């Protein structure tokens, strides 16, 4: 994510994003159709769709990999406030190894993982091989996740990945195991 805010502003923006999600709950009806009954697993998604973890059925059991960057701190604040677990890491050697080991441990405990497969800086929608390596090491399947909306009510962020967030729409899980906003 492109650095949009300084530390104090980032905390305020994180609270605002959480408040928007919390308010959106009044407008959200989640229906799971043919949702895969696979656990533990790694949910793999593009950076631009990272907010679709909001529709996960067991938030307290989902470990989300988040960058150690300042912008990652803002993302971690939001999702931890929502009840998700975070595993902080980065593409650098030390951060990647430590985060990978933490995710493998969580998966072996029977918890799920989520990661953005187009890397910490892109290019967007070009998958890196880390998710495959982690799934092999933990012995768990990869479940691709995405979402779609024909309705243009998206809050779009000016970032390299085109991060977007639905506003006031219902989140559905389609048979293709993706999240759909209607």
Describe the structure in your own words.
The chain is an alpha/beta fold. It has one domain (7-181): Cobalt-precorrin-4 Transmethylase, domain 1 (3-Layer(aba) Sandwich), CATH 3.40.1010.10. Helices cover 30% and strands 21% of the residues. The protein contains 4 helices and 11 strands. The strands form 3 sheets. A 5-stranded parallel beta sheet has the order 4-3-5-2-6, sandwiched between helices. α1 (7-24) runs parallel beside α2. The longest helix has 18 residues, at 7-24.
Give structural attributes.
4-stranded mixed sheet, disordered C terminus, 182 residues, single chain, Cobalt-precorrin-4 Transmethylase, domain 1
Structure in a nutshell:
This protein is an alpha/beta fold and 182 residues long.
Rounded to an integer, what's the Rg over CA atoms?
A: 15 Å
Tell me the major beta sheet.
5 strands, parallel
Instruction: Describe the strand arrangement of the main beta sheet, using strand numbers.
Output: 4-3-5-2-6
CATH topology: Cobalt-precorrin-4 Transmethylase, domain 1
Q: What is the strand content?
A: 15-25%
> Which range best describes the helical content: under 10%, 10-25%, 25-40%, 40-55%, 55-70% or over 70%?
25-40%
How would you name the CATH homologous superfamily?
Answer: Tetrapyrrole methylase, N-terminal domain
Please tell me the total number of domains: 1
Overall pLDDT level: 78
* SS content category: alpha/beta
The first-level CATH class name? Alpha Beta
